[in-house]
Amino acid sequence: MKKIYFVLLFVLLSGLLSWNKAKAECPPGWFEHQNYITYTYEKFGVQFICQAKVTFCCRWNPYTQQTEVILKSVYAADSAYRDCLWFIAQNSALYNGFLLELYKEVALFAKQDPNCSPVCPPCGEDTTFFVKLKIYNCVKWISKPTIVTNTGQILEWGWGLEYCDVNSFCLYTYGCCSDWNESPPETHTWLVSVEEIGTPECPFVEPQVPPEGKDWDEPWETECFAVPCSRR
After folding, report:
1. In this structure, how many other beta carbons lie within 10 angstroms of the beta carbon of residue 206?
2. How remote is the C-alpha of 115 from its chain's centroid?
3. What global pTM score does this model have?
4. Cα torsion for 221, 110, 191, 180, to the nearest 10°?
5. With contact defined as beta carbons under 8 Å apart, do 174 and 130 qualify?
6. Comparing 14 with 202, which gets the higher pLDDT?
7. How far apart are alpha carbons 220 and 213 in whole angstroms?
8. pLDDT tens per residue, range 22-51
9. Percent of the chain, pLDDT > 90?
10. CB atoms closer than 10 angstroms to residue 46
């Protein structure tokens, strides 16, 4: 009976190819991460919850003594959150709040990886560690399969934003400290500065989503378009 069970389990698992872990293509010496964030917003007097999956690369720079992070993509956590992510992206106030929360959470996630950062100094001391978060100015909307059977049947779609690797970017600097009065110690992060480096190399006009002739449940991606720091 156990033999039959394991054979059936093998067939079931081999019948699915999971693409949930999007390839971030981190530079050599950088570490890839995927984390989930939850953002709460209000619509028509009702509170809604939206979850997103964020992929980023991080490393510790021994020369600058700083944590460095490159944001790669932001996707709806699953199909249930696609509409809320799109709604947030179309509302400037909500989108700005969502991005600020997203960047802060990413900085915190990076500080929790010992490969990317030592422990933050105690709160109240003069010493401060910094996280340098690079956000490319050009992004694109993407729809792609995330779970596919070995026969090619698509079971679930992924939808979200991917950042285009260009020379222009927003550089967010965060400070951090550890509160040792808590058990376990809590890491606190705060925004120090935002710099705009270079000029966007893509058009400022946001493309139609989904593209003409396409729908949500088929693969497509838009051209890269600019989201300057002033809108974040």
Report:
1. 14
2. 19
3. 0.82
4. 150
5. yes
6. 202
7. 10
8. 455 899 999 999 999 999 988 888 898 999
9. 40
10. 7
